[in-house]
User: Which sequence fits this backbone?
C-alpha cells in the first residue's frame, strides 16, 4: 500500500440555532490517500488479494488516528471511500466493506454496529458527506448525522481516499422523539 | 488534537464553529520527503461584528475586542495540531466574509496588530504574515498562502493550504483562518536567492527574442 497523504479534519460546534452547544459537539475525520491497488490492471474479477493486502492495514492505521483527533469517546461513527476517476466504485467498496477494515475501529471504540458509509467516484477535491450513526445502536435517532469532507488535491484518477469519522455526541440541538415513540 | 476555547469566550465573540484541517504528506511523486511537513489550517466561524451596521462604520472598537481573541484561539489550535510553536516554520492567515459584509470587515479582523502581531508572537515568528481574503458564500474553498515565519524570502517554504467550511460563512458571518506548516514543500528544488543567477531582460535576450 502506498500512502500519499494523511488528512485530519476536526470540527467543533459551539453554537447552533443561535444557542450555545454545551458540551461542544466534536466530529473528527481522518482520511488516507492511497494508490488504488487495482489501478492499471483492467477489470479484475477477484478483488480478494488486493483487499487482503490493504484493508486491514488501513483500518489499523486510521482507527486510532480518528479517535485521537476526536479527543473524547466516540458515540457515533462512519466511513468513506472516494475512488478516483479511473477506478470502479467497487474498488472503494472492496476496501471498506469488509470486517478486516471496520473491526479495528469497532474494537478501538468499543462499538458493535456496522459503520454507515459513503462510497462514490469523484474528481480531485470532490466533496463528500460521511453518514454517522450510534456506535452500539443504529436506531438511536439523535446520533444520525453527517460530516462534510474534502481533500483538496485528491483523489487523483488512480487513487482512493479512505476515511473514518467519529462524533463525540449526537446532533448539536437534537430534539426529535425516539424511534420507539412511533411504534 | 483540539481543545475548545471556553464557552464564555466562544459566546463573547459569537463563535459558531471551529474547523481544523491538517495534512501530512507521506509520499509525493512516489518519494518520501526528506523533511516531511505537517501543515494545518484552523478556521473560526464568527458572526460579523459589523453585520447590520451603517455603511462605513468605524471598525476600531470591535476589531480590538474580537481580533485578539481569535488570534489566541486559532494559534492555540494550530500549535496543538502541529506539535508546538517551535515546530512551526511557516505561517499565513486569511478571512472569508459573508455576502452581507464588506471585504473591509474581513481585513479588519486579520490586517491589524490586534490579530497579526499576536499571531506572530504566539507562533514565535518575525516575518510579516502573508494572507488571502474573499467575500463568498458558504463552502468556498480559500487557498491560504504561507511563508517562512522568520525569513519570509526562504523560497522552499512558499506553499499554500486550502481551507474550507462547508456551511460557512453565512451572509452575516466571517470565517477567520490561521495556517502553519512545520517544514518546506515536499521536494523543494527551485533554488533560493543565494543561488539564483542574475536575471534581467538584457541577459535573457536569447529567451525573450
Assistant:
Amino acid at each position: 500500500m502506498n500512502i500519499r497523504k494523511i488528512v485530519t479534519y476536526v470540527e467543533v460546534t459551539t453554537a447552533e440555532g443561535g444557542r450555545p452547544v454545551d458540551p461542544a459537539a466534536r466530529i473528527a475525520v481522518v482520511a488516507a490517500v492511497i494508490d488504488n491497488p487495482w489501478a492499471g490492471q483492467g477489470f479484475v474479477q477477484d478483488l480478494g488479494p488486493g483487499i487482503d493486502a490493504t484493508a486491514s492495514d488501513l483500518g489499523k492505521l486510521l482507527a486510532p488516528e480518528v479517535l485521537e483527533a476526536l479527543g473524547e469517546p466516540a458515540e457515533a461513527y462512519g466511513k468513506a471511500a472516494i475512488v478516483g476517476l479511473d477506478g470502479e466504485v467497487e474498488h472503494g467498496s472492496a476496501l471498506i466493506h469488509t470486517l478486516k477494515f471496520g473491526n479495528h475501529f469497532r474494537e478501538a471504540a468499543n462499538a458493535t454496529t456496522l459503520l454507515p458509509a459513503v462510497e462514490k467516484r469523484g474528481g480531485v477535491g470532490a466533496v463528500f458527506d460521511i453518514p454517522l450513526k450510534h456506535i452500539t445502536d443504529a436506531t438511536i435517532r439523535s446520533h444520525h448525522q453527517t460530516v462534510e469532507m474534502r481533500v483538496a488535491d485528491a483523489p487523483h484518477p488512480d487513487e482512493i481516499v479512505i476515511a473514518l469519522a467519529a462524533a463525540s455526541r449526537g446532533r448539536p440541538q437534537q430534539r426529535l422523539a425516539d424511534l420507539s415513540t412511533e411504534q | 488534537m483540539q481543545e475548545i476555547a471556553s464557552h464564555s469566550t466562544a459566546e463573547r465573540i459569537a463563535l459558531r464553529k471551529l474547523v481544523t484541517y491538517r495534512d501530512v504528506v507521506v509520499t509525493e511523486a512516489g518519494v518520501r520527503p526528506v523533511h516531511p511537513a505537517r501543515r494545518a489550517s484552523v478556521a473560526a466561524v464568527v458572526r460579523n461584528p459589523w453585520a447590520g451596521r451603517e455603511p462605513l462604520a468605524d471598525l476600531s472598537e470591535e476589531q480590538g475586542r474580537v481580533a485578539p481573541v481569535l488570534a489566541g484561539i486559532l494559534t492555540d489550535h494550530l500549535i496543538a495540531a502541529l506539535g508546538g510553536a517551535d515546530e512551526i516554520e511557516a505561517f499565513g492567515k486569511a478571512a472569508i466574509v459573508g455576502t452581507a459584509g464588506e471585504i473591509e470587515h474581513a481585513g479588519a479582523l486579520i490586517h491589524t496588530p490586534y490579530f497579526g502581531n499576536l499571531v506572530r508572537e504566539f507562533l514565535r515568528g518575525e516575518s510579516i504574515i502573508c494572507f488571502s481574503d474573499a467575500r463568498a458564500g458558504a463552502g468556498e474553498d480559500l487557498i491560504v498562502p504561507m511563508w517562512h515565519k522568520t525569513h519570509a524570502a526562504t523560497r522552499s517554504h512558499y506553499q499554500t493550504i486550502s481551507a474550507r467550511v462547508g456551511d460557512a460563512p453565512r451572509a452575516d458571518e466571517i470565517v477567520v483562518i490561521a495556517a502553519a506548516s512545520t517544514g518546506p514543500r515536499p521536494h523543494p528544488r527551485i533554488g533560493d536567492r543565494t543561488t539564483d543567477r542574475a536575471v534581467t531582460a538584457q541577459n535573457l535576450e536569447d529567451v525573450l527574442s
Notes: Chain B touches chain A through 33 residues (CB under 8 Å).
